[in-house]
Amino acid sequence: MYVAVKGGERAIDNAHAWLAEERRGARDVPELTIPQIRQQMALAVNRVMAEGSLYDPDLAALAIKQARGDLIEAVFLIRAYRTTLPRFAASNPVDTAQMALDRRISATFKDLPGGQILGPTFDYTHRLLDFTLMAEGAPEAPLPGQPPVAADGDTPPHLPHVSEHLNHDGLIEPAPQGETLPPDLTRSPMELPADRALRLQAITRGDEGFILSMAYSTQRGYGRTHAFVGELRLGRVAVEVDIPELGFAVEIGEIELTECETVNQFKGSRSEAPQFTRGYGLVFGQSERKAIAMSLVDRALRWKELGEDNIGAPAQDEEFVLMHADNVQATGFLEHIKLPHYVDFQAEMELVRRLRAEAAAAEAQQHQQQPQEAAE
Amino acid sequence: MTDQAYTFAYLDEQTKRMIRRALLKALAVPGYQVPFASREMPMPYGWGTGGVQVTAACLVPEDRLKVIDQGADDTTNAVSIRRFFARTAGVATTEATAEATLIQTRHRIPEQPLREGQILVYQVPIPEPLRFLEPRETETRKMHELEEYGLMHVKLYEDIARHGTIATSYAYPVKVEGRYVMDPSPIPKFDNPKLSGNAAIQLFGAGREQRIYALPPYTAVVSLDFDDHPFTASKPGHACDLCGAAHSYLDEVITDDAGGRMFVCSDTDFCAGRRREGHQGRLGGQA
Predict the structure, then answer these.
(1) Is A361 domain-assigned?
(2) Which of A82, A105, A130 delimits the end of a domain?
(3) Does residue A354 carry a pLDDT above 70?
């Protein structure tokens, strides 16, 4: 009879075994390999790296495989692994002006030095299902059009940022040059109010869906910032680390980044002259939606420093945005209500029963009194 | 990756040191919420990561660990956490309250009084007692600084005005040594009196919210109330159907689809111990 909670240990083991079987799926279908995921599910890998705050495509692919394609679960696996890693050093800031570009577009200028580079984008694809992709095993058709990389020997172009052109005329606020080391929200508790560096850190690892919705809400009027995509660039940058024993920086690798700079209309305020302002987004891998959304949310959160009005929009509310952007935190807390709550529920039942008994008694008393009142 | 790739009790020594510092500060200022750089753990936020980090920072190889959830040693999450430390720290485990040197708990305080030298670690979901009155952390920290607890009293008063009683049955707010209002974690208010004057060290860890707070041994803890509406530690008006205990906290178990119910101790170790001693409740023989 009273065995409901017994056998928890065996139940857990069995659940894990079943999960492993479900993850693998039917045995007559070949198992996915990590290189396959890394190569052919690259945007999922990018998202897991960005929100997991760890640039390692192989581990991200492993996490996706282990999580059965649940990307938030994969992000969680990466975070839990990442937190155990020792810190050897902090890299120098990456220089995105030196990015080896695969893609670079500006929505503010028709043409500009270096031109527009469309790169590998979904932008102008017609969203029609390509049924030839279902014909697996068939010899692959040659790729239509030009090969994706430039001709032999060409190194990818390095181009200055679009905002630099506006900067010449003083039309846009200068990008702040901070000397202070930015705080690290993975090593110290988030303290509010946060500075911009900390906000950007939280947003870049925040849930893509949440940041997207926050950004979208500003476009629909909840804290509108009149954003233009000044520049969106995708490419690879070198990561350099200063080696104290050597006295100079050494390149330790290369990472792919998406960077977005928005140019925002700004009519001036009590404290600032009219000029364009900036929103900034920087995300691991090709993550354009996230980078653009990030720059819109960044700009919306800057209302105080620019002396703008707070209209009470969610995207202007630093505490609201920063405390709810992390999907590992959110999913954990949301799903913890699956855990036993017998004790609290028992306490609530007892309270509701008592309140109901008291209410019933009060009503009965009223009924007794009412006939007398009617007779009077 | 093998288990040996992780340090004792999973967390690296620098992280443990950071947590121990927060614990010492928390013990020095009872009831005050100390921010700490909570780490991602290999279990989800909201599932006891705060308690697990505090336990990891306190454990030594000689410890004997007990883990309970809802008072029971055999609920799934308690099993999972106990296994985690058995695996990563290799410490001995026990279900006996008296034998444990460190007890991690979710939502209960064991029925058997704790003794000096024991540590009770609570898992805390929302450490801020004022959170549901004021959602902003920036505001609630200020309220604690200024000892501005009027809002809480107004809430309790409104309960009485509306329901005739304070309608909070768990996570019932307390005041620590006459200073900080503290959330005792979602324990039933039946357990609140055990918080006060307890011989054990009581540590509270909230992982997702990045807060640690503590009650040193023999700290005075008072459940908030009014002179004319004193606090009462209530429980269902039954005795345990298995061991017959009249003063333990009970779980209600549905036994059939015709409204059949039985009440059993939520503290499984306490209940089993009483039955070993020969106590028997209404259904003690059959269960």
Answers:
(1) no
(2) A82
(3) yes
Task: Check A334 against B42: CB less than 8 A apart.
Answer: no
Q: Mean pLDDT throughout B245-258?
A: 91
Together in a domain, A107 and A52: no
- Looking at the fold, whether A15 and A68 belong to one and the same domain comes out as yes
Looking up tokens 């897991």 gives A48
- pLDDT, tens digit, for every residue of A103-114? 999 998 888 888
Same domain, A23 and A45: yes
Same domain, yes or no: A209 and A236: yes
Cβ–Cβ < 8 Å for B177, B31: yes
Q: Evaluate if residue B117 carries a pLDDT over 80.
A: yes
Which residues are paired to A242 by β-bridges?
A249
Helix, strand, coil percentages, rounded to 5, for chain B: 30, 20, 50
Answer yes or no: is A364 within a domain.
Answer: no
- Among A52-56, A96-100, A137-141, B72-76, the least confident range: A137-141
Is residue A219, in this structure, part of any structural domain at all?
Answer: yes
DSSP E strands: which ranges in chain B? Answer: 34-35, 64-69, 92-93, 102-106, 119-123, 174-176, 180-182, 201-206, 211-215, 221-223, 250-254, 261-265
The verdict on residue A134 lying in a domain is no
- Residue type, position A45, single letter: V
- Total domains in chain A come to 2
Range of the domain at A23: 11-82
With beta carbons under 8 A apart, name residues in chain B contacting A340: 69-70, 75-77
Cα(A171)–Cα(A159) distance, integer angstroms: 20
Together in a domain, A223 and A309: yes
Nearest by CB: A343 against B70, B253, B283: B70
- Same domain? For A38 and A169 the reply is no
Per-residue pLDDT at B287: 47
Contacts with A329 from chain B: Cβ below 8 Å: 45, 208
Is the pLDDT higher at B149 or at A1?
Answer: B149
CA–CA gap between residue A353 and residue B131 (Å, rounded): 27
Domain termination site, one of A82, A105, A134: A82
Which of A264 and A167 is assigned the larger pLDDT? A264
**Smallest Cα distance from B117 to chain A, Å:** 27
Contact A4 B253 (CB under 8 A): yes
Give the tens place of pLDDT for each residue, A230-241. Answer: 999 999 999 999
Measure the CA–CA gap between B77 and B48, rounded to whole angstroms: 9
* Rounded mean pLDDT, B182-206: 97
- Local confidence band at A374 (pLDDT 50, 70, 90 cut-offs): low
Together in a domain, A17 and A113: no
Residue A9's φ and ψ, nearest 5 degrees, are -65, -45
Average pLDDT over residues B73-77: 89
- Does residue A77 sit in the same domain as residue A167? no
Is there a contact between A12 and B76 if contact means CB atoms under 8 Å apart?
A: yes
Largest CA distance in chain B: 61
- Residue B276 per-residue DSSP state: H
Mean predicted confidence (pLDDT) in B115-141: 95
Q: DSSP alpha helices (H): ranges in B146-267?
A: 150-163, 192-195
Q: What is the pLDDT of residue A110?
A: 84
CB-based contact B239:B281 (threshold 8 Å): yes
B240, B244, B273, B281: the active-site residue: B240
